[in-house]
Amino acid sequence: MYTGTLIKDLMAAVERAEQSAQQKRRGEEMELRRMFALQSPRTQSEREQVFAGAA
After folding, report:
1. pTM of this prediction exceeds 0.70
2. Residues 55, 42: Cα–Cα separation, whole Å
3. φ, ψ for residue 10, nearest 5 deg
4. Region 23-28: what's the mean pLDDT?
5. What value, to the nearest 5°, has the Cα angle with vertex 37 and ends 18 and 52?
6. Within a 13 Å sphere around the CA of 53, how many CA atoms are in the beta-carbon half?
7. What angle do CA 15, 19, 24 make, to 5 degrees?
8. Interatomic CA distance for residues 27 and 23, integer angstroms
């Protein structure tokens, strides 16, 4: 017999999936921020040296 918990169970499953996806996005964002923080900023003269002699 139907007990009426199907909708509640489905809603709980969706909430768990949303939380999992949100945690994954946060982790990926933190990883990207960490990678960008490791990059050393280049000065204008360093950027110009890359193109020296390219013409």
Report:
1. no
2. 22
3. -65, -45
4. 96
5. 130
6. 2
7. 150
8. 6
